[in-house]
Amino acid sequence: MHAEICLNAIEALRTRTFDHHGRQLNASIRRTSEGFNGDDAYALTLQNKMPYTLRQTILPALKENLWSFANALNSFKLAESAPKPWYEAFLDILVEMDDLAEQADIAVISIWDKHQHDTKCEDKNTNIEHLTRFRAQNTEDLMWNVMRGISGSFSTYAVVFTSFNLLKQPRSEYVPTTVLPKRPVPPDCFARIANRLTCEIDRVINWLQKPLLDVSKADWQGQIKLMDEIWLLLQTPIRFKGDRYYDSPREPESEPEDDTTISQSAVNFASAAIPVIQLCRIYFNKLSRPINSAHLIFVSPSMEMGIDRLKLLLKYTQPVNDLMETFKYTITRWPTRHREGVTVMVNFIAGFSRCSNILKQYWDALLDSHDPRVDQDLIFEARQWLDTWTALFLTATRRTMDATGHRYSWPPKFQDNVTAEDIRIKHANEDVLMED
Predict the structure, then answer these.
(1) Residue 114: CB partners within 8 Å, gap ≥ 6?
(2) SS3 content of the chain, % helix, strand, coil (to 5)
(3) Which of 146, 222, 238, 278 could bond to 427 as cystine, CB 3.0-4.6 Å?
């Protein structure tokens, strides 16, 4: 009887953890139906205590409980001499784990909820933490890995528990007699499972301990991967879909342009876009550089970027990343017109301009503070780097726009005497300097 109750409890826990992702998706759908907007604008004011609760309370307790569970199974022989006390203690562990799994469920589902400040009592609760969209999404993904790992482990536990031959017959649909282990369970089996699960939990805890700037840098590094993908794509010949790519202007009486001319115009555009992608990568790499190197966002206590400004910068860098996807399809998938390629370039300029303005405002605020601890030389170097990058970027985007076969008066050409190859060399030099 005790064995059947415990096995049913194991199966219930397996089901709860397995269904975690489904409940998470249902909550996301419900928020959307209620008008929830989980974009970066929403994330500007997103803060709650869920990261703290997971990191400090739920996950450490879950780790301890998993080891208690493993140790209890290792001491199973005690059930032969004192079955009732052993089963009661074992069932208590299962009940506690079920409670912790439920708490983890609620915390993850609530991670998108904004903390409601009490106007009568000003909140000074240090447990309330800021979140970004990337921090919340990655927390969801990491917790799903934990829950999936627990679910799989409990399937194994059910098999092993049944193999102890305390049941007259296996009652679990997940434990048919054909899968019962035919050899003795290794002594370290439960410890290895618990160790693997606690490693997954530690990954979540370590992630939730990261300062918001480190989280932002991880987000920017992820965006660099897409830029690398596009850069590699542009290094090889592109097979364009459709007979027409650009809507080159024609006189009504003129002979139609042949496909070779149209195709060459598309190839010219793709080739000219390579420096643009390189410069985009340089910008994001500069933002996400490690602490021990020159950077645009400083980390000393007197020069830190405020959380509100940092989240605003994240809000503006995300659309640039979205543009990368648009650009990728523009050059490889759509039989597009030249205006669409030019529009992407213009949007790139606008997007990076918004990001750079946030950086300039941040540096100006540091200088205006008149704090003697502010290193003005670092700010001067960062501003000089940004001015140089901006001139190169505007030159590269202008060349890409001109490669469509049309001529534009904007953006201005800062370096008319510089060839496309010179720009590539300068980009490479900047990239090397960033790695110093």
Answers:
(1) 45, 46, 47, 48
(2) 70, 0, 30
(3) 278
- Beta-carbon contacts of 253 under 8 Å, excluding residues fewer than 6 positions away, are none
How does pLDDT run across 114-127, given as a tens digit for each residue? 877 654 554 556 78
Q: DSSP letter for 56, please.
A: I
Question: Bigger pLDDT: 148 or 238?
Answer: 148
Region for 165 from its dihedrals, namely left if φ exceeds 0, alpha if ψ lies in -120 to 50, beta otherwise: left
Q: Which two tokens stand for residue 232?
A: 């590699």
Residue 398 host element (H or E): helix 376-402
d(CA 154, CA 175): 11
Average pLDDT over residues 97-123: 80
Q: Would the CA dihedral through 216, 217, 221, 227 be positive or negative? A: positive
From 166, 167, 111, 105, select the one nearest 139 (Cα to Cα).
Answer: 111
How far apart are alpha carbons 272 and 269 in whole angstroms?
A: 5
53 and 105 housed in the same domain: yes
- Which residues form the domain of 391? 212-248+256-435
| pLDDT tens per residue across span 65-74 | 999 988 888 8
What does the alpha-carbon distance between residue 394 and residue 356 come to, in Å, rounded to a whole number? 13
**Residues paired with 403 in a beta bridge:** none
Q: What is the 8-class DSSP label of residue 184?
A: P
Residues 236 and 194 in one domain: no
Do 387 and 359 meet the contact criterion of CB atoms below 8 Å apart?
no
**pLDDT of amino acid 87:** 83
Tell whether 192 and 236 lie within a shared domain: no
Domain count, the chain: 2
